[in-house]
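Notes from hallway chat w/ T.B., transcribed later so I don't forget. T.B. wanted the structure written out for a chain they're using in a teaching module, and asked if we could keep both sequence and structure tokens in one place. Agreed to drop them here.
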Amino acid sequence: MCDFEEFLFECKHSVVKLKSYCHFARNDPNHQGFGVKVLRRSWKQHGRICDDCTMKA
């Protein structure tokens, strides 16, 4: 199971980033994991907007 983290911004957008590879993805040369994806943690980013909204402002 590959572990992911989610970052929730004030602009209501979210970004999901890889935290750690699963066993199969670590051993695959292209790091392709086709197993279960697990969201381990969600982080609220108080007072911050995402990079896309920052570029538009």
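Follow-up for T.B.: The longest helix spans residues 51-56. Might be a good example for the class.
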